[in-house]
Amino acid sequence: MAQTDRSRRSFLAALISLLAGGWLVGRFLTPKLRPKNTLLTVAKAELPPDGALVYREARVALMRRGDSVYALDLVCTHLGCTVNVTPTGLVCPCHGSRFDREGKVLEGPADRPLKRYAVEADGDRYRVLV
Ligand code: FES
């Protein structure tokens, strides 16, 4: 009988340890999914075809090219100046980096493309998500 009690206790202790270990692994090793926040909401009709809307305070440009709508972060990837949007691309006034309308580097010193934000169509509006 004593042998059975010890065996049962060992089994329960092992089971509790396994569950606690599984919980700890799940708690600390799985990434947390954060809901995205809306940075901007823009009426679809405001965004011209093959054009851009620039929000300098938010340092974001909402761009349309054909059917594709995307948002670029206007923070230069070199040292963080605000990039200007021109009809042909994006130009940083601080050290002259140039980017194409997709945000890819055309000319340094910046060596990384501009960050993109997710854009979600929501009825008659676009929502730029961060
Ligand atoms: S901060 Fe833009 S090129 Fe230097």
Total number of distinct structural domains: 2
What proportion of the residues form beta strands (DSSP E)? 25-35%
Basic shape: elongated
Please state the structural category: alpha+beta
**Roughly how many Å apart are the termini?**
63 Å
Bound molecules: FE2/S2 (inorganic) cluster
Query: How many DSSP H or I helices?
Result: 1
User: Can you tell me the CATH superfamily of the largest domain?
Assistant: Rieske [2Fe-2S] iron-sulphur domain
The appropriate CATH architecture of the largest domain is 3-layer Sandwich
Main sheet characteristics: 6 strands, antiparallel
CATH fold category name of the largest domain: Rieske Iron-sulfur Protein
Helix content: 10-25%
Mean pLDDT: 87
> Would you report the number of β strands?
10
SSE string, helices as H and strands as E: HEEEEEEEEEE
Quaternary structure state of the chains depicted = single chain
The CATH class label of the largest domain is Mainly Beta
Low-confidence stretches: none
